[in-house]
Each structure stands twice: as C-alpha cells, then as structure tokens.
Amino acid sequence: MNARESALKVLYKIDVDQAYSNIALNHELKSQQYNKLDRNFITELVYGTLENFIFADYIIQQFSTVKLNKMDPWTLNLLRLSIYQIFFLDKVPDFAAVNESVDLSKKYCKRASGFINGVLRSIIRSKEKIKMPDKKKDFSKYLSIKYSHPQWMVERFLSYFSEDFTEDLLKTNNETPKLYIRVNTLKITVEEVLQLLLKNEIKVEKSPLIPEALIVEGGFSELETLEIYRKGFIHIQDFSSMLVAKILDPKEDQFIIDVCSAPGGKTTHIAELMKNKGKILARDIHQHKLSLVEKNAKRLGVNIIKVEKFNGKDLDHELLNTADKVLVDAPCSGLGIIRRKPEIKYRKEADVIDVITEMQLKILINASKYVKSGGELLYSTCTIDPNENHKVIEKFLNISSEYELIDISQQYASMLPGSHEEKMIQLYPNVHGTDGFFICKLKKK
Ligand SMILES: C[S@@+](CC[C@H](N)C(=O)[O-])C[C@H]1O[C@@H](n2cnc3c(N)ncnc32)[C@H](O)[C@@H]1O
User: Fold this and answer.
1) What pTM did the predictor assign?
2) Predicted pLDDT of residue 219
3) Is the CB of 435 under 6 A from ligand 1?
4) Nearest CA to ligand 1 atom 10
5) Which end of the chain is more exposed for a tag (fewer CB within 10 A), N or C?
6) The ligand 1 atom nearest the CA atom of 258
7) Mean pLDDT of the chain
8) Is 262 flagged in the annotation as binding?
9) Spatial distance between the Cα atoms of 417 and 392, rounded to a whole number of angstroms
10) Does ligand 1 come within 6 angstroms of the Cβ of 263?
11) Residue 102 has pLDDT above 90, yes or no
12) Where does S-adenosyl-L-methionine bind (predicted)?
C-alpha cells in the first residue's frame, strides 16, 4: 500500500468513524512495515489534509456539480487529500497528485473516478484564479476558510482577541507542535536518557525551563516502540502539561487527590515529584480510562497511586478536608490543543462551552471541599477560552470565600515561558509555543 492510500484510510476513519487523529494514524503506522520516509509522508498527508478540511471543501464546492453532503465520503476525502497536495505541498507535482488520486479512486470509489479526475484537473487549471472571501468585507469568513476553523469559532476568538492575534492563533493552530518527553526521574537521570537517545540516533534538546523536559528534534513519531519507553524511563507529555505538576508542587508523604486523572500523565508526574512516597487518589468518570492510568503507573514504576471511578460532579463526604493538595485538570473544549488534534475544530459545537463551564465549576467546587485548611487547589485546562478559565475561577472565588489566589506568575516565574501579569497563567500556542493551557492555584485559608 502506498503512502497516499494509507493516508486516505486514516482520513476516512477520522472523518466518518470519528476516530482521534493520533490513534487512527498510529494504528495505520503500526499495521505495516513502513520505512521512515513513508511514515513521515503519511503523517504529513494526514495532518496537512485534516488541518485544511474547510479550505479544501471551499475549493471543491466551486468546481463540483455534486453537493458536499451528497458526496460519498471516500470521494470527498480523496479530493481533500489531493487539494492538500496541490495547494500546500511544493514537492508533489500537481499532475502526480491527480494521477495518484484517480488510481486510488478505482479502488475506493470506482464510480467517481471520472468525476474526481474532472474536478481536480479543473482546479489545477484555475488554481491561480480561485477567489478567497473578501478579507475586508467579511473578515471572519476569510479567516475561517483560509485557516480552516469553523466560522463560529473564529467569531468567538475575535470577540476575545484582536484581529492580528486571532489570525496568528489560527495560523499557529495549523502548525506542527514540538514533541516533548518527560524523563522519569524515579528510574533514571536526564543525562542517562540523553545518552540512550543518542544511541538510538534521536536528537533531543533540554528544555531551559523544566529540567526533566526534553524536546525531540524532528518529532520522532514512534517513541513508544523504543525500549527506553517500554522500560518506563520516559513519558510523552507536552511542556504545558508538565508545568501543572511542577506548579502543584507536591511533596513527599503528602496526600494528593487528582479528580480528573486519566490517562495519568499528570498523576504519574506528581508521583515522580513525590519520589513515589505518599498517597495519590486518582479518579475519573471513565473506568476504561483509569486502566490507562494504572498501565502508565506500572510502566513508570509508580506504586502510590490508587485509582477509583468517581464522578467529580458528586460530592464524596468521606474526603472532606483530607487532602494536602487537589488537582482539577478539568474536562474542557480542548481549544488549546488544536495543533495536536485538528479534528477538535470540526467536532465542537458553538454551545458546547456553556454546558462545559457549568460542569467545570461544579467539579471545582466539590474538589475544593477535599482540601485541608492551609492546603492547595490547582485548576487547569487545555483551552484558551476565557469562559472555561478566568470566568470559572471568578465564579468560584465569588462563592468560596475561604480560598485565595496564589500568584504563580511570580512564584514559578523561572519555569514559565514568557512573562505573565496576572496571578493565574494562560499560555497560547502562538505566543508561548506550547499547547494553549490555563493554570491557576488557590490556597485554602
Ligand atoms: C483533561 S482530561 C485529564 C487528563 C489527565 N489529567 C492527564 O494529565 O493525563 C479530563 C478527564 O476528565 C474526565 N472527566 C470528564 N468528566 C468527568 C467527571 N464528571 N468526573 C470526573 N472525571 C471526568 C475525562 O474522562 C478525562 O479523562
């Protein structure tokens, strides 16, 4: 199977079966003995096409006699894949993209071969003349098509941020994020990991801000197959997620509750920072996800975590005033991690945020009751939407007078990218180069 066919199959799974891009792609890459070049090309085709669905559909609509919603999904995704190559990949000549697509159509959507050939050839002929929406007359529509974000999302961003900031954010959302790994300091030192990676010909750079964070050059996609991963020497985690456990700042022998813990990235980091001494109660609403927490903990050699299925919207009277620190890494819209999971752009509805903020506040209020007097509560999300972040904290502080904000911008300044004026921190992909993330820490009087 060639790279384009593999990419098409992955795109179909994401679009039609609603698969997560990373899972569908990894599954395909593991299903056959692809060489490195093919793996990289498939990855580029899948993410590049997925990032540009709305742009591709805008172009298709101008040249197709068949409406998008009447088109068979193999045909539609094959056209999208071809348009990505024609408009964004200089290394692929246009005619090659068309010929390969027509060949592929014979296997996946035979009856549409002629149609695909015709549409793509017309697009190539008129490529330079295609009109985008007028930037001055309809800025949000222009941004929506150019950067393939739904128009409601663009308008929402424009209501929070300036025009330049919004455009920069949308552009960055279509870029490839850096790949970070966390060294498991329970098992190995950073220097030893550097040596082992070098032996595997994987180049990494140390993060200047978090000692256990390493940036993998070129974003090697198969870290999980390495012995160093299987042995639990490393964990794959973005920088901003690592910041959460660092700012929670847990100590040995403390009792920590993580109310939304799966798949366990932050919980296991917390355990490492506690030197595997103390107690962590890791909860989540989904049992199947909790088994991932257990699996990660086992691989990383962590044995202080007890997992428990529990709905954070319910209050557990047994835990009142018991924990030294509580983490609420809340379920959220995920608008800060579009670079990692571009499908988020297409799967969210405009009203999702209002529903989610109520849940976030409820979980936070319950969690706050588990903290001992003098203890700390940390709230984090992977979104840049102020309604899920600052607004939730504002509402929380209005009803929870025993809590006060800790100035983490000051206290943890040495590990924060950029400078922060507020006590809580908001990271943006286009400003800080990290996932879009919000972190806020509160102290119970
Ligand atoms: C942002 S993720 C947590 C990521 C995790 N902290 C980590 O670092 O790996 C949010 C989690 O909240 C869980 N969740 C959603 N609704 C919940 C609820 N009502 N109570 C508890 N957990 C919930 C989801 O299953 C999901 O695993």
Assistant:
1) 0.95
2) 66
3) no
4) 331
5) C
6) 6
7) 95
8) yes
9) 24
10) yes
11) yes
12) 260-266, 284, 329
Kindly list the structural domains of the chain, giving each domain's residue range(s) and its CATH number in brackets, ordered by start: 3-129 (1.10.940.10), 139-173 (no CATH), 179-236 (3.30.70.1170), 239-444 (3.40.50.150)
**What is the b/e burial string over 324-339, where b = at least 16 CB atoms within 10 angstroms of the residue's CB?**
bbbbbbbbbbbbbbbb
Main-chain phi, psi angles of 291, to 5 degrees:
-65, -25
Question: What is the CA(27)–ligand 1 centre distance, in A?
Answer: 24
Catalytic annotation present for 382: yes
pLDDT band at 220 (very low <50, low <70, confident <90, very high): low
- The DSSP bridge partners found for residue 378 are 327, 441
Say which amino acid occupies 231.
K
Q: Is the peptide bond before 263 cis (omega within 30 degrees of 0)?
A: yes
CA distances from residue 304 to 120, 204, 239, 389 in whole angstroms, order as listed: 58, 30, 24, 30
Cα gap 147→172, rounded to integer Å? 9
> 296-299 long-range contacts, Cβ below 8 Å, gap at least 24?
296/235, 296/263, 296/264, 296/265, 296/268, 297/264, 297/267, 297/268, 297/271, 299/230, 299/231, 299/232
Q: Whose CA is nearest to atom 15 of ligand 1?
A: 331
Cα of 237 vs centre of ligand 1, distance in Å, is: 16
Residues 6+ apart with CB under 8 A from 317: none
Distance 143 CA to ligand 1 centre (A): 32
User: How many C-beta atoms lie closer than 10 Å to residue 255's C-beta?
Assistant: 19
